[in-house]
Amino acid sequence: MIASVVARPTAGPSSPADEYIPLRLNDRERALLCVLEGALSVSEYTDRVDSVMAWRGARTGRAVEELQEMLAYMTGLAVAASLKVSHEPCLEANADVFREAFEVGRRFKGMNPDKMRASYGKLIYMLQDATAPDVIRELGFDPLSRVQTVHAELALLSCLDLLEEPELPLAASPAHSAEAADAKAAATARLLARFADGDAERAVRLERCLLSLADHACLVEAHVSPVDAMLRLLRTHFSPASTSVGPGGAASASLQITAGRGGARLSHSHASQYAYVEQSLLL
Predict the structure, then answer these.
(1) Which residues pair with 149 in a beta bridge?
(2) What distance in Å separates the CA atoms of residue 252 and residue 255, rounded to the nearest whole number?
(3) What pLDDT, in 10s, does the model give residues 208-242?
(4) Any idea what the Cα angle at residue 53 is, between residues 50 and 54, rounded to 5°?
(5) In sequence order, what DSSP letters do the residues of the chain get, joined into one string?
(6) Residues in domain Non-canonical E2 ubiquitin-conjugating enzyme C-terminal (predicted)?
(7) Which backbone phi and psi does 22 adopt, to 5 degrees?
(8) pLDDT for res 16
């Protein structure tokens, strides 16, 4: 249920959703994200490759040329950002950097659906073409890698048991007051003390996982709470099948629409429109 997701941000290790919660970006990855976004902003990949003229010609060759140009942009921006990259003229020498940057972009979009609105589509078109065998052969490497997740990071740390901890929902939940923030910080400290074993680096990685779970919970809450509110209003003020009496016993307004009136393009009875609105909110 929608409400239960918000109430408990992590559903436990038995939930498939746990394996897909993205890991929060660190400082290096944020620098790589800037490199990627900068290169995407100047790349004309979709204009030159996904056009009618490109389809009529040698599209694979055009895709390789544009990808090589994109990677060259990224190399220059990475050098300007003082990131550690190879200065060899061969693009394959920086394959790991490119692969990491593309993964960071995909992960960042998953955590921030409202970001990269203009450039993410270009990135996906680019990566789809880059996975073609002919393109991989020309580039010399496969630019795709799996998106880093909290589950994968905890597995590397041998700490998957953390997902079963009773205090995890508190440590990974949104804090809406000073008291809640204090309780959350205390729960986080207890979990880190229990699982970090006094290792500072391990504690940093575990804290990053907890922060990532909290980010996910905030994202879900921000998107689900308005929908829950609309569902409550719909079910409180309107009756599913009748326009005479609502669930609370009060008179219920009609949701009926007629084509040509009030901008409506279709004609729906009250019951049909109620079902349509409710189903749309439950998607």
Answers:
(1) 22
(2) 9
(3) 999 999 999 999 899 899 999 999 999 988 888 76
(4) 45
(5) -HHHHHHSS---TT-GGGGGPBPPP-HHHHHHHHHHHHHHHH--HHHHHSSHHHHHS-HHHHHHHHHHHHHHHHHHHHHHTT------S-GGGGHHHHHHHHHHHHHHHHH-TTS-TTTHHHHHHHHHHHTSHHHHHHHTS----PPPBHHHHHHHTT-GGGGG-TTHHHHTS---SHHHHHHHHHHHHHHHHHHSTT-HHHHHHHHHHHHHHHHHHHHHHHHHHHHHHHHHHHHHH--SS-SSB-TTSSB-----B-TTSTT--S-B-HHHHHHHHHHHHH-
(6) 19-283
(7) -70, 155
(8) 60
Among 216, 166, 174, residue whose Cα is nearest residue 191: 166
Give 37's contacts (C-beta < 8 A, 6+ positions apart): 105, 116, 119
- Residue type, position 162, single letter: L
Per-domain residue ranges for the chain? 19-139, 149-219
Residue type, 254: S
pLDDT value of position 150: 94
Tokens representing 276 are 């349509």
Within the chain, which residues score under 70 in pLDDT? 1-17, 51-57, 242-252
Say what the pLDDT of residue 91 is: 86
